[in-house]
Design a protein that fits this description.
The structure holds two protein chains of two kinds. Chain A is α/β, with parallel strands linked by helices. Chain A has four helices and four strands; from the N terminus they run E-H-E-H-E-H-E-H. The chains are: A alpha/beta, B alpha/beta.
Amino acid sequence: MTEFTPKLVCFSCKFGWGYLNTNGYKNQLKNLIPVTCSGTVDTTHIIGAFKEGADGVLILGCPDSECHFQTGNYQARKKIMLLRKVLKEFGIDSGRLKIALSIDPEGAQIPVVIDAMKKEIKNLGPLRLAV
Amino acid sequence: MWDAINVGEACVESAIKQFLPPCQKQCPVNEDIQRTNVLISLLPEDPAQAKDGLIQIGDYLFENNPLFPICGYVCGVCELGCNYQSKGGSIRRRLLKRFVSDFYLNYMDKKKEYDIVKDKENVAVIGGGPGGLMCAFHLSKKGYRVTIFEATNRLGGALWLIPHYRLPKLILQRAIENILRIAGIEVKYNAKIGEGKLTLEKLRKDGYKAVFIAKGTPAPRVLTFGRDFVENQDLEGIVYGQTFLYEVSRGILVRDYLGGKKVIVIGGGNVAFDVARSARRLGGDVTVVALEREDKESKDGIPADHEEIQGAWEEGIRIIYSRGVNKILGKEGQFDGIVSPKCTRVFDEKGRFHPVFDVNDTITMHGDILIITVGQIPDKDILKKEGLLDEYRQLSVDPLTFQSNSKDWVFIGGDVRRVGFMVDAMRDGQEAAESIERYLKGLDLKAGRKKEYEGSDIPQLKDADYKHEPNVVWLPPDKRIHFQMFEKGFTLKEAIEEARRCLCCGPCVSCKACISVGIQEELSSVVVHESFCSGCGICVSSCHYGAAQLKAVNSHLVSSTDMFKCKACGMCVSACPSGARESTGSDMEERISEFYASL
C-alpha cells in the first residue's frame, strides 16, 4: 500500500500573505488559492473542497483588526468556527478545517503552515465521506 | 520587494464629478494619500527590506508633488478632512509623509536628473517659493525652458519663515536643491521684478513667452484699530513678525537675544505662534495677545492650530484671548506698552472681518519688545506699475486658470493672489503650469478643468473597532527651548501600524495601490443577478462601505451595487444566501473549480 499523502486546499489572503514574494509562489504551491480577502471564502467553497476529495482545508487571513476590508478576517473566523461544529456532526473531524490569522508579506511561512497541517491530517487518515 | 508600476494610473481622473477619499479632497493638490497609505501599510517590518518600497513610494509622490519632503514637516491639511477625526483621531498623514521623506531625502541626493529634451518655449517664473517651484517643476518636466527669478539669494520664499524647530534648514535646502537639479530648472538670484531694468516687458523681449508671478507677500500688514492706523508703530523695540522670523532664519538673532526681555506678540494665527515660540527660544518672556476667542469651534475662534497653541502654552507662553490694541505707548522713543480693549466680536454675521470692541474694558500691558504679526500683504506698487490691478486696486486674475485679465501671457498665483497654506500656493503653481501649457499650445484654458469632488463616507464599523490615534511624541518643554526639531518622527513599525489604521474610505479607482504592486490583477466588481435576489438585505448589512443597497423594482426590493463605493471585497457575495451576487473580473471561482477538478 502506498503512503497516504493528504490533499490540502489552502485559501490565502492576498493582502496579508506572500504579496512581496515575486518569485511566483502561487505556481510553486499547487494547492494554494490566493483570495482577495479571507472573508470571501464561502462555506460552499469549503464543503465543495471536501466533496471533491480534499482531506483538509486551511484558510490564511490577516491578523485581528488589520483586514484591508475592515472585518473580513473576523467574518471568516466566525464562519469557520460554526462550520467546524456542523462538519463534526457529519463525521468530519474539526482538525480538517483550520484558519490562521497572521501576516507574512514574504510568504515564507505558507509552506510551513501547510506542511504542519498536512502532518496532522496524515494522522487522521484520508477523509471518507458517508455519501 | 515589489516593483510598483507607477504610471499615473491612480491619478485623479478628470471626470466632472468623482468620489475621492476626504483627505484627498481636502488636499489642494489632491495628493494620492490613500494609495500611498496602503503602500506604507504593506511594507515589510525589516527596514533593510522596506527601503526599496519606500523609495518607490517617494518616487511616486515626487512626480506630482516634488515638495512632499517639506509637506511632511509642515502641512497636514489633509488631516482636517479625515473621516477618522470624530472616531478616534485623524490618521497622522503628516508624520507618515515625514517618515517617507526622511528615507527619501538620502536617496533624492542621488536621484537621476530627468531625461527631457528642453525644446519648448521659455517661461519665466517670478518668485521661488512653493508656488513658483511647483509651476517651474511641472513645466520643466514637460520640456519647457523655465527660469526662476528670485528676489533674494535663496529659494523657498515664505518657507524660510517657518522656524527650524518645525522645518529643519537642511531638509528645506536639500529638497529644493534636488528639485532644481532633477527637473533642470534655471534660477536667477537677486533678480527682483520692478527693480532696475527687470520688468515684464523686458522678460517678453528677452524671449519668455509666458510668465508666472508668485512673488508672495513680502510686506507685513500694519496694526489697525477699526479703520485707523495705530500710531507709534515706528518706536524703537517694535518689529513686524515677518521681519523677526526672517532675521531668525538668517541667523541674525542669536541665542539669548531677547534674554530677560518682556515680549508682547500681537496676533492669533500660526505665524504669530511661530513668532512667539521663536521669541521664547531666544530667551524672551512672551505673551501673545489675540483678537479671537479661546474656543476654536466658535465663529470667532483663534485660527492657530491646536498643536501650536498647546506647544506654546507648554513652553510657558501666556496667551491672552479676545483683546485688541488701540494704543501703543512709548517712552523716550522706546516701546513701553499697549492699551488693550476687550474684543466682543471678530467676524460679522456674513463672516467678514469686522471686530467690535468694548473700550470700557481695557487693560494696559507693559513690555520691552512688541512684535506685530497680524498678516502679510503683497507689494502692490509693482503689480500696479505692471498694470495687473483693477480699478479697486485688486489683482485681476481668473480664479480657475490664474491668467491675468489684462495680460494674457501673465499668470498669477500663490500668496500674492490670496494668502493661504503652503499647499494652496503649490496648487496655484500646479494649475498655472497647466494653464501656461494650454496657453502656449493655443488650447482652451478652461475646458474640462472645473472638477467637483465628493468625499467618501467613513466605512461603518462598531465603535469599538475604530482605533485610537497614536500619541505624538514631543520633547518635554524644558528640553526643547532651542531651534532643533522637538517632534519625534515615526519608526518603520509605527508608520506601518498607523498606515494600517487608515480605513481607505475612498473608491478603488482613485487608489489602485493593490494593482500597482501586483496583489490584484485588476479591479473587480460585484454584479447582482436580480432573478435570484429575494431582497432580504443581508448584503446590505455585510457591506461596510454602503455599496450594497436595496432598491425598489416593480414593488419588490432588489439588491444593487453602487460602483463608486464598492471595493469588490466579496463580503456580500459570501454573505448572500441565494447566490444572487457574483464577483466579476476575479479569477477566484475559476481557479477553485479548476483546482477541485484536479483533486
